């Protein structure tokens, strides 16, 4: 993992006390053991650039901080071609990254198209501060040793478990938007943005459709081609769904050695289908089962307070403890890959939730995304949510609006926070997050991508061996019947024998069925901190959520739990100790 922060003085030089503070607070904001942090600094006229990493040596390219033609450049994430570092901040560079560029009197920070490697910024009377960790930026900006939370901004964390805005949990700290450049020159800050690509109409002929999909395939292959030279196989987290199937096909077509790993119990569709995919492509496959009691009628889970502490530490209050964040392990250069954000190739997860593609139904999807569980929230919190939704509701093309909302928020805020856990362990390759891949995908018609013909054709182009492998959950969308008024001109013939895998009892999850014991722990924390939550939620509605023995809406209960622990000071602070694991029983052990 890499962390960068740039500091620019509005007048004269940066005070020494500020530089000393930067060096001190990095241990709080970097979620790894302090003894593995290595850093570099560059100081020029009115500008300082700091970089830190837990990488054990300087072998990874580009370097943490390097000089190119008089510019000092730091890169978070990875570049498809490390030599492209000299081109930054060019929007056409491949990879998954953000960049910091410094020289005397000037500081620039830039995001790629999905800002999944984030940039956060703040301003004080004497400084501009720009960094890759929101808490770090906030701590440097604070005149005293105190954290001030933006409580109203946290209303979206309670609703969705991530941010549907450019806000952060910290007062005065904002996230830079996708494809944006922040420049401080002569003490004055400016921000320029490049709009997301507008989708072209569906190609009129089969030949042109194949050519368009071919361009996307080429962009994907370019992201993994360098992995052929690593000397060890890529570890692919494989499931029974669409997105990791694309990656298996991609690695197969690019002739990159890989092995597959699946987490779950034997009867779960993910395990059943992943085994077949691995067999078809002749790659090793390992199944990792979750811990269970001896009778296999329950699972043991860590105490929510421990889970919340690690999530707050890693994701800075921008991801709910409902999510499973990858725990810390020493940094490793071994290549890993997962299907995170593969919905980009399918017009985004918000569109994928829709069965009715009518204008009014899509408008409601936009509004309910921002105003989910509206009756739970105070008038002030609801008014804030309405204002965040307003520019998206004003867009005439609803499919495009939901597609871009997915990139801005579900990837650019949720994934940006959640993937921090994995980045501590190494620098995983994420083809679906690559700057060029996202641009190629967004240039394709949203309805065409949403039909899943694009992704299905892409898989067959890369690995025809997977043609008849079942899919987890629902069948391919383009193969399902739709009313004639919504019949799409590019619809292909349904793939023969391509059926949904049957769900089994292996699909049970302790997070969505928390049981009484776990609910009691969540309830005690949330109801015990209602004063802290009162600016954004109605206490009576929160109590009603926990009325029964089991939380009525488990994800919402977890989101409330996360925000309540943030506001009551769980982190920064010492890791909780002595908390016993909690047993969560299956609702129907016989299955």
Automatic annotation (TrEMBL):
Question: What positions does the domain Asparagine synthetase occupy?
Answer: 216-452
From the UniProt annotation, give the residues forming the signal peptide: none
Where is the chain membrane-spanning?
none
- Which residues lie in coiled coils? none
Which InterPro entries does its entry note? Answer: Asn_synthase, Rossmann-like_a/b/a_fold
Q: Which organism is it from?
A: Nonomuraea zeae
SUPFAM superfamilies under this entry?
A: Adenine nucleotide alpha hydrolases-like (SSF52402)
Which one Pfam family would you cite for this protein?
Answer: Asn_synthase
Q: Which GO terms describe its biological process?
A: asparagine biosynthetic process
This protein's source sits in the domain of life called Bacteria
Tell me what this protein is called: Asparagine synthetase domain-containing protein
Q: List the GO molecular function terms.
A: asparagine synthase (glutamine-hydrolyzing) activity
């Amino acid at each position: 993992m890499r962390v960068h922060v740039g500091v620019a003085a509005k007048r004269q030089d940066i005070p020494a006390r500020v530089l000393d503070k930067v060096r001190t607070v990095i241990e709080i904001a970097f979620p790894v053991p302090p003894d593995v942090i290595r850093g570099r600094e560059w100081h020029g006229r009115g500008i300082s650039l700091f970089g830190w990493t837990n990488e054990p040596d300087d072998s990874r390219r580009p370097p943490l901080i390097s000089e190119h033609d008089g510019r000092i450049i730091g890169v978070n994430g990875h570049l498809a071609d490390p030599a492209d570092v000299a081109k930054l901040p060019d929007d056409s560079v491949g990879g998954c990254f953000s960049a910091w560029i410094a020289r005397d009197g000037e500081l620039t920070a830039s995001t790629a198209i999905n800002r999944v490697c984030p940039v956060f910024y703040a301003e004080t009377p004497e400084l501009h501060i720009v960094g890759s960790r929101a808490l770090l930026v906030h701590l440097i900006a604070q005149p005293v040793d105190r954290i001030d939370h933006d409580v109203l901004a946290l209303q979206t964390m309670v609703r969705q478990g991530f941010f549907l805005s450019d806000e952060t949990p910290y007062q005065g700290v904002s996230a830079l938007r996708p494809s944006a450049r922040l420049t401080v020159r002569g003490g004055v800050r400016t921000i320029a943005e490049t709009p997301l690509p507008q989708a072209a109409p569906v190609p009129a002929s089969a030949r042109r459709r194949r050519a368009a999909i071919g361009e996307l395939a080429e962009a994907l292959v370019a992201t993994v081609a360098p992995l052929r030279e690593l000397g060890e196989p890529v570890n692919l987290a494989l499931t029974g769904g669409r997105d990791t199937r694309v990656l298996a096909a991609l690695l197969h077509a690019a002739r990159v050695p890989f092995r597959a790993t699946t987490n779950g119990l034997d009867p779960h569709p993910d395990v059943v289908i992943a085994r077949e995919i691995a067999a078809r492509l002749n790659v090793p496959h390992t199944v990792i089962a979750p811990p269970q009691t001896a009778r296999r009628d329950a699972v043991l889970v860590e105490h929510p307070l421990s889970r919340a502490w690690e999530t707050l530490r890693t994701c800075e209050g921008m991801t709910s403890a409902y999510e499973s964040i990858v725990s810390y392990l020493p940094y490793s250069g071994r290549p890993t890959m997962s299907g995170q954000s593969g919905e980009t190739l399918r017009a985004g997860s918000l569109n994928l939730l829709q069965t009715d593609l009518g204008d009014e139904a899509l408008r409601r999807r936009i509004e309910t995304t921002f105003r989910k569980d509206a009756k739970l929230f105070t008038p002030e919190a609801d008014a804030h949510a309405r204002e965040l939704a307003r520019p998206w509701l004003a867009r005439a093309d609803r499919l495009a609006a939901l597609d871009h909302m997915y990139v801005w928020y579900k990837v650019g805020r949720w994934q940006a926070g959640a993937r921090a856990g994995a980045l501590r362990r190494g620098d995983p390759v994420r083809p679906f997050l690559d700057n060029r891949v996202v641009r190629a995908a967004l240039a394709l018609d949203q309805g065409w991508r949403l039909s899943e013909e694009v992704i299905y054709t892409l898989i067959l182009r890369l690995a025809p061996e997977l043609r008849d492998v079942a899919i987890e959950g629902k069948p391919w969308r383009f193969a399902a019947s739709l009313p004639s008024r919504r019949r799409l001109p590019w619809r292909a013939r349904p793939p023969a024998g391509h059926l949904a895998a049957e769900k089994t009892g292996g699909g049970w999850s302790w997070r969505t069925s928390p049981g009484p014991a776990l609910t009691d722990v969540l309830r005690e924390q949330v109801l015990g901190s209602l004063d802290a939550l009162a600016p954004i939620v109605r206490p009576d509605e929160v109590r009603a959520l926990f009325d029964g023995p089991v939380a009525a809406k488990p994800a919402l209960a977890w989101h409330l739990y996360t925000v309540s622990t943030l506001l009551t000071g769980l982190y920064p602070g010492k890791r909780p100790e002595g908390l016993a694991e909690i047993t969560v029983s299956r609702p129907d052990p016989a299955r």
